[in-house]
Amino acid sequence: MERTVSAADAVVTAPGTGVHLLDGMPRQRTAPLPVHPAADPWFPAPARTPRPAVRIRALLPLPAQTPFTFGYAAVLAVTSLFAEYADPALMHSLYQGSSTDVAHLAHDPLLVLIASALWIAGGPGSTYALLFLLALTALERRIGGPRTAVVFLLGHVLATLATEVPVGLAVQAGQLPGSSLHRLDYGISFGVAASVGALAGLVRPWLRGTILAVFGGILLADLLQFTDPLSDWGHLLSLAIGVGTWPLVRRWRRVGLGVAGG
């Protein structure tokens, strides 16, 4: 069978002979020029390493990404600034009126539970103020603002009731003096401890163990010092409440990522 040589097939001349080799030879395919990965839509350019400033910024609350934490932090900044410059006698009166002690919980539970969470015990330079920014920002980025508020309130409310109700019962039984009903108790620490516990369930195992070991160890050391055992028990209980929310916050995270939760 005769094969026709196409025009694309070059006529090859043997070197030094002048003889044309007309027999059709398979044409060699020319290798395409390499495409730079950045110019190929199927191979996008590698992502740039985020700058340190960007990484630090991601740890702090921002109005668009973490509105709940940002707004709450703004309120706490205002109340802390007011507490810094207000008359000490006025501040003592405000703290006492915001205290979630047994007497206030018996008469105005909703009011004092809200009011007590408007102050930072120890001021804006305290450890819990820093943990508030870091833990709630990270938690809100994972599960959203409303759900972060639920976790915070669970720790704040449940730990408060769990520590104050036994005081009221002990006073009724004559085990504690009546002055215990007016114990000064306010601040965000219970809600923050619960948020740290919940966040630990959403991070990698090695980081989870580190968070629980370090933070739990600090709370346990505070309890062993016996300076404020009721609050210290409340902090440990709040951390346990946060850990108890792991199935819930993990489901919330899956739903937030668009994955069916179980």
Q: If you had to describe this structure to a student in words, what would you say it looks like?
A:
This protein has 262 residues and is mainly α. It contains eleven helices and two strands. A two-stranded antiparallel sheet has the order 1-2. α7 packs across α8. The radius of gyration is 33 Å and the shape is globular. The model is unreliable at 1-12, 19-26 and 36-43 (pLDDT under 50).
Structure, briefly:
By secondary structure, the chain is an all-alpha fold. 60% of the residues lie in helices and 2% in strands.
List the SSEs and their pairings.
Blueprint: E1 12-13, E2 20-21, H1 52-59, H2 67-85, H3 88-98, H4 102-107, H5 109-116, H6 127-143, H7 145-172, H8 189-200, H9 205-225, H10 229-244, H11 246-256
Helix pairs in contact: 2-6, 6-7, 6-8, 7-8, 7-10, 8-9, 8-10, 9-10
Keywords:
262 residues, mainly alpha, two-stranded antiparallel ribbon
Structural class: mainly alpha
Question: Which percent bin holds the helix content?
Answer: 55-70%
- In whole angstroms, the N-to-C terminal distance is 69 Å
What is the gyration radius calculated from CA atoms? 33 Å
Count of alpha/pi helices: 11
**Average pLDDT metric:** 84
> Which regions have little confidence, pLDDT < 50, spanning 5+ residues?
1-12, 19-26, 36-43
- Elements, N to C (H/E): EEHHHHHHHHHHH
Classify the beta-strand content into a percent band: under 5%
What order do the strands of the largest sheet run in, or round the barrel if closed? 1-2
The count of strands amounts to: 2
Largest sheet: 2 strands, antiparallel
**Overall 3D form:** globular
